Amino acid sequence: AAKGRGRCNYQVFTEFMAEQLNERLELEHALQRALELEQFSLHYQSQVDIRTGQTVGVETLLRWHLPGTGNISPTRFIDIAEESELILPIGEWVLRKACEDGVLLQQRYGTPCVVAVNLSPRQLMQGNLVTVVAEALNDSGLSPELLELEITENIFMHHAEELQLTLQRIRELGVRIAIDDFGTGYSSLSYITRFPIDRIKIDLSFVQNMLTDPNCRAVTNAVIAMAHGLGVDVVAEGVETREQFEYLGQQNCTHGQGFLFARPQPLEQLLLDDPTLSQFDTVQISTH
Ligand code: C2E
Ligand code: MG
Ligand code: MG
Ligand code: MG
């Protein structure tokens, strides 16, 4: 019986794997044509200055609408794009569109609004990234200091040396650099002293548990303190509740991003908002 069950399980397992592989190949196939079929769009999620409640930036989040399948989450296709190198043309499209939209946001808002764009490791290792960024800025007319590139810390584990020059040159353009999902990577912290970084984003797994889990709270507080010590901004990701927002204010976290403030939304929607109107009564928050 055990043997029979074993074989049966084995079969189920391989069928499951085959299905997954199939789905993956289908996605990769569809991804290859997504750009030319104009199936991508960008959503933007507000980043709020915790001290004033005002929108001072937006993060660009890629959306893929595949007819017949619906909207596919970037968590399902970014890896495939990365492994197949499709991330290079897709990433360049994102960068160019985000810069163009950034100019429109700037015109609408009147106050500086930084546009953050996620970069994948392969984009960072591509030889002409600095040229691609410079051209996106030039062609759109966006001021370099209004563009921020988000990178994750794992890249520093294997490619710190190669990255040094690239990030330096990006910084020389006047473009900002943020470390995304901070605290979830595997690289040594020493990179943070050697690289030109403007901002650290605390991963949402810490932020969402900091009020109930003392360990998550300790990490959150430590990252905020470290950011202040380094003289860089610190953004809490995934802020969903008023309580989290108030706690972050008390800890002197400078910026927040999350469903409490705004969902990721199309540019048209954002252009309707008035960023100078704080949705939050921040007066009661003591920021000592
Ligand atoms: P990320 O860069 O860390 O982006 C933040 C993710 O958290 C987004 O998921 C956003 O919708 C989600 N989020 C924001 N606020 C909240 C909240 O309050 N609660 C919860 N539960 N989630 C929140 P999304 O849009 O699904 O993107 C997932 C990831 O895909 C991104 O994580 C980023 O790593 C990647 N990604 C998205 N767009 C691009 C892109 O254009 N290029 C590259 N290379 N990666 C991208
Ligand atoms: Mg990000
Ligand atoms: Mg993140
Ligand atoms: Mg992430």
UniProtKB/TrEMBL annotation:
<feature type="domain" description="EAL">
    <location>
        <begin position="24"/>
        <end position="278"/>
    </location>
</feature>
<protein>
    <submittedName>
        <fullName>EAL domain-containing protein</fullName>
    </submittedName>
</protein>
